[in-house]
Design brief:
- With about 100 residues, this protein is an alpha/beta fold.
- Helices cover about 35% and strands about 35% of the residues.
- Strands 1-2-3-4 form a four-stranded mixed sheet.
- It starts with 6 loop residues before the first strand and ends in an 8-residue tail after the last helix.
- It contains three helices and four strands, in the order E-E-H-E-H-E-H.
- Helix 1 links the parallel strand 2 and strand 3.
- It is globular and about 30 Å long.
Amino acid sequence: MTERAEVDIRTAVLEDEVVQLQVAGDVDLLTVPCLARALAAAARLSPRRVEVDLSAVDFLSVSGAAELALAAVRMPVQVRPASRASRATLTATGLDHLLG
């Protein structure tokens, strides 16, 4: 029996060229490609900023945090709000500057 990791990512374009990604579930090695695709799609919109809502994330792996860091090199990324779990990972990996 194999476990299936789940993540739900919803994208919205807000006023002032801001793209919001609402992420829910676990962002781990199995689901980080979903986050990568969502961030790449957001980048193609040439936003002024990407706001990543991690308030419903139960687990954020280091690979998920790394994906956010890579995105932040390509475009302005701000994480807000953040769950306790995602905030802990971002702080532990030195990416707390992404927290808004």
